[in-house]
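User: Teach me something about this protein's shape.
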Amino acid sequence: MKKRCIALALVLVMLLPFALTGCGGGTDDTTTTTGDDTTATKITVILPENEADPQGIHAARTKKFEEETGIQVELINKGWEAAADDILADLASGGGSYDVIEFDNAWIAKFIDNGWVEPLDSYLTPEIKDGMVPGLLELFSKDGKHYGIVWNNDTRFYMYNKAMLDELGLDAPPKTWDEVSALAKKRGDIAYLDTYKQEQMGTNQLMFVVYSFGGEFVDADGNPIVATDPGVKEAYTWLAQAYKDKVFGPSSLTIDYDEVKDSFLLGTFPLFLQAWPGVYGDANDPNLSKIVDQVNVADYSVSKTGAEQVVLTLPEAMAITTTSKNKDAAWKYIEYMSTKEFDKERALALGSLPIWSELYNDEELLELYPYWKQFGMQAQNSRGYPVILWVEDFADIVAKVSQRILTGDLTVEGGLAEMQKLMEDAKASVE
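Assistant: First, the predicted structure itself:
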C-alpha cells in the first residue's frame, strides 16, 4: 500500500504520474464479443499519479498505444489514497468499473484470495518470465500463478546532502538512529523530514523505522505482536523522543511524499532516509533543485546499531480484474506499458529502476546512473508489508495510533497495547 507504501531481490521501485483523462465507469457499451473472446474498443485503467514523472511519459505512451492498436483507453489518474478507495470500493461491491487496476504490494493476499484479479499465465511469454526481475514477478504470485506485472519498481534508498554534512565536519551520513539524533543536535535544526501522517504513506515510513530496530508487527503466522516485540517498543520510544527533541520536523505528521521531496530539494534538511530513485535525478535538475551536485547515495541504511539493515520496497503492479469484459485488450495495454524498450526509455528519462533484469547491466544506463551500485547494496535488504488479509486495517491502525504515541497523547506502552488490541480485532474479523 503505498504505499503502502512498499522494494525485489532487486525488488526496486519508482513512481510516475499519468494525466487525468476521465472518470470510472463500465465498458459494456464499447465492446463486441466473439465466442469466449472479447475484442475491446475501449478499456478503463485506474492507476495512481506519480510524483516522479514530470515529463508525462506514461500518458504519452498510453496515447501511442491508442494510436497503434485502435483501443481507446480511459485513463483515470488520481492520488494514491483516492485511487485505492475507488478500486477497493468497486471490487468489494462486485466490480465492473475497471479493466486494468493498480495492484499494490499490500493487497496481494486480499485480492487473490477474494478472486478479484485474473491470473496472467495464459498471457505470459517465456521472454517475460525469464527476463523480468524474478522478485518482482514472483511477489505478485500465489500457488504458482502470476497476477500482476510491476509498473512502478518502488524501492526506497538512503540519500543525503553531502555539502550540508561537510559543513558540519561529518565525512559520512549517520548509520544509527542515535547518530541521527546527534546530527540534529549538532546542527541545531532537524536532521530529516518524513511523512508520518495518518494515511497509508505514514504507515509505510513507520514500518521502515520498526524494521530498522529489528521489530516485527506480526509473527510468522500473521498474529499481532506489537505489544511484546522489543524492537517495536524501541522504535516507538525513539520516535516519541525524536518528535519531542525535533530530530525530525513536526510537520512530518501532516506532509506527504511530494512535500518531503520538495523540502529536501530546497536544502531544508540533510537526510532523506527513504527516497525513491527519481529523487536523485530531480536533485541534480537546476529547474527543480537548489542542491545540484550535493546529493550522494549511502552504501547502507539507518538502523538501530548498523546491523539491522533494511529498506522499504513498495512495488506496484498492473492487474486485470476478473470482472473485465475486455481481458485481451487489457493485457495488450499492460504488455505495451511493460516492454523492455519502454522500461529503458523510462529509466533514461526519469532514473526509475527497471523491471527487466538485463537493464541493470546496460552500459548506457550505468554510465548515466553509476549510483545504482549503492542502490544495489541497499536493496539486498528490502522489506515490504506483511502478507495478511486485514492489511487495510493494519495500515489504518498503525498510522492513527502512532501519531498519538509520537505526540505524547499515549505512552509508548499504552499505545502499543491499544495497537495490539485493534490488530487482534481486525484479524479476528476476517477469520
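Now, about its shape. Confidence is low (pLDDT under 50) at residues 1-40. The chain has two domains: 28-154+314-383, 157-312. If you'd like, I can walk through any region in more detail.
User: That's plenty for now, thanks!
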